[in-house]
Structure to design on (413 residues):
């Protein structure tokens, strides 16, 4: 489609700077580097197809380090003031809590991110006109908490898991992101016959889980849900749990989906469940992307976070080309045309359908909110099946995307 649109503009010259704030150093660099890779891969492919109306893309990534509000806002201002980027195509900066929004809204450029934050909904709804060009390309973290009891209920109803009780023990990371997820679990669990019988908030980072695990074991819960998301920390949690396990399902939010978790946890990882709203689907499109990504960056690269910025860039390029071009800082009229196009059509990405709900300028999940998989992004539940495999995880929920059925972990007596 881009190549066809570009044919009449092939003689155009010039470049389009595209910005990104990503953690290239620090604990979240495991994803930040892949966010950078995904953006650069998309720009290379789009440039090979003629760019956007004949103009080539130039990606510029600024290190957002620890993702504090100050670091992310400073990076955004640098991209706008020094590099004059026409758009910011981002992964996540979970610690900024929307602090960067005002600087970007003042510049009037398009900003697409995967912050996975219910705070985005709240800020956007407070002034849709001001924030019209700011989009969240995945569902809010809140839906992780809503989705977990739903997924557990589906497994229980199939009869493949027969819990000894209805208790959920919550271990909550101290970041607002993790707290929102835990609060949603507490709110939703009773609707599906579960009871949150224990919760403890742990500092970030955490590697010594002995004290909290002793309290959890005393509960003997049916499910242990850990909403901390740093993969190396979670690997230590699982190693220490496996030393004296209870008959509990272990669910950890997002972190175990990265190879680092399985590499550290080893055999202790087998059977752990985890979920994502931006995971590559095990279908034709997803598998082709994963292979192309590995060919470009090597088999050790994490294709799932790379797919997020890769897909955002393509959707933005199509929206801008159909609008007649990109818009530099201060070009409010042109950027509004692009924003309208982003809201107007969905984009089938390697992780499902990327479609923005105008009320929030954000994606919504299937099946937690929408029962139509063609109109929403699937909330994916995985189980670690082989820690040594090229892809350690397998998708167990939801249909029609799942690869295998859930199996009871080997640590159950």
């Amino acid at each position: 489609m881009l190549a066809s649109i570009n044919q009449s503009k092939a003689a155009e010259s010039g470049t389009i700077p595209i910005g990104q704030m990503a953690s290239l150093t620090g604990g979240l660099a495991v994803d930040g580097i892949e966010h950078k890779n995904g953006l650069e891969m998309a720009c290379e492919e789009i440039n090979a197809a003629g760019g956007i109306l004949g103009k080539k893309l130039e990606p510029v990534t600024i290190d957002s380090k620890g993702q504090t509000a100050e670091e992310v806002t400073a990076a955004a201002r640098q991209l706008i003031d020094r590099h004059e980027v026409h758009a910011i195509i981002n992964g996540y900066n979970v610690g900024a809590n929307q602090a960067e929004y005002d600087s970007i809204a003042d510049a009037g450029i398009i900003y697409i991110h995967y912050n996975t934050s219910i705070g985005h909904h709240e800020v956007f709804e407070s002034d849709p006109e001001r924030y019209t060009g700011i989009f969240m390309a995945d569902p809010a973290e809140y839906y992780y908490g809503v989705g977990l009891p739903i997924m557990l209920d589906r497994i229980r109803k199939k009869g493949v898991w027969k819990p000894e009780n209805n208790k959920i023990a919550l271990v909550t990371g101290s970041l607002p992101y993790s707290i929102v997820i835990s609060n949603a679990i507490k709110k939703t669990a009773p609707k599906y016959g579960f009871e949150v019988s224990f919760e403890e908030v742990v500092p970030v980072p955490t590697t010594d889980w002995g004290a909290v695990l002793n309290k959890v074991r005393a509960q003997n819960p049916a499910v242990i849900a850990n909403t901390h998301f740093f993969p190396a920390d979670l690997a230590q949690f699982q190693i220490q749990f496996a030393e004296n396990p209870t008959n509990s399902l272990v669910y950890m939010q997002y972190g175990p989906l990265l190879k680092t978790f399985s590499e550290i946890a080893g055999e202790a990882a087998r059977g752990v469940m985890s979920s994502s709203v931006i995971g590559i689907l095990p279908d034709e499109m997803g598998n082709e992307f994963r292979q192309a990504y590995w060919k470009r960056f090597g088999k050790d690269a994490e294709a799932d976070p790379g797919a997020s910025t890769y897909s955002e860039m393509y959707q933005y390029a199509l929206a801008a080309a159909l609008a007649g071009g990109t818009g530099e800082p201060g070009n409010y009229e042109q950027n509004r045309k692009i924003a309208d196009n982003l809201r107007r059509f969905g984009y089938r990405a390697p992780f499902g359908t990327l479609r923005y709900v105008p009320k929030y300028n954000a994606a919504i999940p299937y099946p937690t909110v929408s029962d139509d998989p063609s109109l929403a992004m699937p909330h994916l539940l995985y189980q670690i099946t082989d820690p040594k495999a090229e892809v350690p995880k397998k998708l167990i929920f939801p249909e029609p995307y799942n690869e295998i059925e859930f199996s009871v972990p080997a640590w159950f007596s």
In short: Residues 303-323 form the longest helix (21 residues). Residues 41 and 310 are 7 Å apart (CA to CA). The chain is about 40% helix and 20% strand. The mean pLDDT is 95.
